[in-house]
Design brief:
About 45% of the residues lie in helices and about 15% in strands. The chain contains 9 helices and 6 strands. The strands form 2 sheets. A 4-stranded parallel sheet has the order 5-4-3-6, with helices on both faces. Strands 1-2 form a two-stranded parallel sheet. Helix 7 links the parallel strand 4 and strand 5.
Length: about 240
């Protein structure tokens, strides 16, 4: 699988348990800890150029053909959305019922868009008014460029792993994104550091970006009910 971290680590873990060989293809600018985590679970790693997710997908597809292998194809597989609809989204609704709060917005970055789409659609079965709020690195703001009809926009490198791969993933349906916020790498890094310093929550830059986007949504739109986001990475990926 072509991966920036989480899916590759999870697949390496599962494949090791059931005795399958796993190969991850990773852009070269991903932090070394991600590759080490995959190797800890006996996965193998192949690298492509920095920020070259298209190259990672191409290498993956080439290896699938040459080795008669299988890829979950996380960027295009609708099971990605369904998994978050059934699990992550349901868990959030269960907690909302337990604590008795409503939900006005769901905030998440889009790597494959599986988390964003799956959770949003599940939340809307109970709270139809829930707004979908996504975010992207300011350095790779392809969704923002699309909405501004800027066909000349060229994304550049950034430090927020897991999102902003330079293209809008196939699973992402922009009609579900009521709002798109842009977050700079420096802002995401600083917010993650404050989560650690102020709350003892050891998370990485994509978590910082999610929290910052949620805070900006709250300040701008002043919702009456809860705004939900997710902390998808751990600080140990960024040592």
């Amino acid at each position: 699988e072509a991966t920036s971290g989480n899916s590759g680590i999870a697949l390496a873990y599962v494949c090791n348990l059931i005795g399958l060989r796993f190969i991850a293809v990773i852009p070269g600018n991903m932090t070394p800890q991600r590759a080490l985590k995959i190797k800890e679970h006996r996965g193998q790693v192949r690298f492509v150029g920095d920020n070259d997710f298209a190259g990672a997908v191409a290498m993956r597809d080439q290896m699938v053909l040459s080795m008669e292998g299988f890829t979950p194809n996380q960027f295009s597989n609708p099971e990605n959305i369904r998994a978050h609809y059934l699990t992550t989204g349901s868990e959030i609704l269960s907690k909302a019922t337990e604590l008795g709060f409503g939900i006005d917005a769901w905030v998440a970055g889009t790597g494959t868009a599986g988390t964003f789409m799956g959770v949003l659609q599940r939340l809307q079965t109970v709270f139809p008014h829930v707004e979908g709020v996504t975010l992207e690195p300011a350095e790779s703001a392809v969704m923002t460029a699309l909405r501004q009809s800027n066909a000349l926009y060229i994304p550049s490198g950034h430090k927020i792993g897991g999102i902003g791969d330079g293209f809008i993933p196939e699973l992402m349906q922009m009609v579900f994104a009521n709002h798109v916020f842009t977050i700079t790498s420096e802002e995401a890094i600083e917010r993650a550091a404050r989560l650690n310093r102020d709350l003892g929550i050891q998370v990485g830059y994509s978590s910082g970006a999610n929290v910052l986007a949620a805070e900006r949504y709250i300040l701008e739109f002043k919702p009456k009910n809860a705004v939900i986001t997710i902390l998808p990475d751990h600080a140990d990926r960024y040592v």
